[in-house]
Amino acid sequence: MTPFDLVEPASLKEAIALIDPDDPDVRAIAGGTALMLMMKAGVFRPTRLVSLRKIGDSFSRIAVSASGELTIGAMTPLSAIEHSADVLRAAPVIVRTMTRLSNVRVRNVATVGGALAHADPHMDLPPVLMALGASVTIVGPSGERRLPVEDLLTGYYETALAKNELITHVHIPAQGATRAVYFKVTSGSADDWPALGVAVALELAGSNVKSARIVVSAATVKATRLPAAEKILIGHAADTATLKSVAEAAVAEAEMLADVRGSASYKRELLRVYAVRAVRAAAASGGSH
Description:
Elements: E1 5-7, H1 12-18, E2 26-29, H2 33-40, E3 48-51, E4 62-64, E5 70-73, H3 78-82, H4 85-90, H5 92-98, H6 104-109, H7 112-118, H8 125-131, E6 135-140, E7 143-148, H9 149-152, E8 153-155, E9 158-159, E10 166-172, E11 179-185, E12 196-205, E13 208-217, E14 224-225, H10 227-233, H11 240-253, H12 264-284
Parallel strand pairs: 1-3, 2-3
Antiparallel strand pairs: 4-5, 5-10, 6-7, 6-10, 8-9, 11-12, 12-13, 13-14
Helix pairs in contact: 10-11, 11-12
């Protein structure tokens, strides 16, 4: 690696001031699990890294409001989320997802804000957050704004963040009776990068689906909602005929990418199968799952 400066601001305001939006070689670093790999590979050669480790404890806290909204500070390590009783009560699908997200060494260092800002389409957490209707608070020189996670992710390793904006918090609305699952499909070890990820969150009215969010990832340029497939579910039971229509709509709607984990046609077949499995599992689970 080439030499670079490492600065450790003591506040969020100071950190933002140190990030030059016109200099692509200056970047913020949270856990650094992805950034360090890029640096070792020579893909990124920074002149300055702005460490966020000392900007304040408030950015690494997990809290549940009286209304049931779950707020997670962007600097919270993934392992802290994995072992949080608040997260387990508010959105247990997140805890279950964490156990297969990379390995414990990475989860001990990587942060939730860094994972979202990196925008790797193979990450397991973004599709789950999207299915749960999560949003992020973003702060920059011009102030604060809030953005749904599905609008934050704009492309392959691309986000709606300005170069001098930082994610400060992730917000997951109260889930109520929502039932959510995440299916990770990989031919490698359980914690390997997936060839396909499918996250589903359903709310039922009796045996019929009242609301639905279906998100596909890993096989696409970014975690992507499938509104056409969702629409087919609304007002219907998750029976065999409906699920077949949902699967076909999902395959038609999602633009698959070929990579080392499989061809586009292979991933379409995976989606055809796992869209059905994920919706069926969400519909069959009890309460917020």
